[in-house]
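Weekly structure sync, notes
Attendees: PL (lead), two postdocs, one rotation student
Agenda item 3: pending single-chain targets
PL asked that the sequence for the first pending target be pasted directly into the notes so everyone works from the same version. It is reproduced below exactly as submitted, 289 residues in total.
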Amino acid sequence: MLTSSTTFPLSYWVHDLSPFLIRFSDTVGIRYYGLAYLLGFAIAWWLLNSYGRKGLTALNRENTSDLMTALVIGVMVGGRLGYFMFYQPGQVMSDPFILIRVWEGGMASHGGFLGVALALAWSARSFRLPWRHLSDLLATVSPAGIFLGRVANFINGELWGRTTQVPWAVIFPESAPPGTPTQLIEPRHPSQLYAAVLEGLLLLGLTQWLLWKTPWLRQKPGRITGVFLLAYAVVRSISELYREPDAGLILGLTRGTFYSLFLVLGGIVLLLLPSKPLPPLTPAAPQKS
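Predicted structure, written out during the meeting:
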């Protein structure tokens, strides 16, 4: 709905979206956030299988399923641990069981990157495929999940932006103390949607273009990943300009921007490392039992 404020000259939409598609109780139900993860993994699985059908990779359907299993574990565990390690380190020490209370929220994209890296290392060794080849494939599918996750953040009314009076600003009731009258709540940037476009759609278009329009996947393995890491660091830092910091600054930078510096380093290393063209693709080796 719209509300007119006596404090601000414009009318702003008040965020009143439910985080549940279907709700069974106050805390139990089918949440959009969980559906975003499921759909993101499903899109990644479909894209990876389509790459195999087009002859871009030697991953077969069984290997792809195993890779997706490793990715699900890596993203969920890495994202969860990363959130408390990077943003709320003291909470785990005082309440270790908070790690399993996933319905309370708390995931970090940079922690997810670490989880994906571990899943990638395991998969490359299990399938006997070059890790840089697999990383390039994952770099082209990851933005779809990032996009859906950011949209889910907006639906949840979390990770809101800094205060502003732009016409498209949103009033997030959760950004003010409970009981604050709506007309006294400052409007904010819908920074979640900015991130969805920049970190999700823009990077999805970029990596897909690199995959299909350049010879890098076969001739320069690792380069697509390097560009993805650099581009993510840049657009994440842009998004952080509009996002309200949800933890203390580090060296004057928001934590999202500071942790992105390590992605810049990783991207530069991958772009500078010498790479050899991939040998003729043969079906990936079955996983050792």
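Discussion points:
- The radius of gyration is 21 Å.
- DSSP finds nine helices and five strands in the chain.
Action: rotation student to compare against the earlier draft before next sync.
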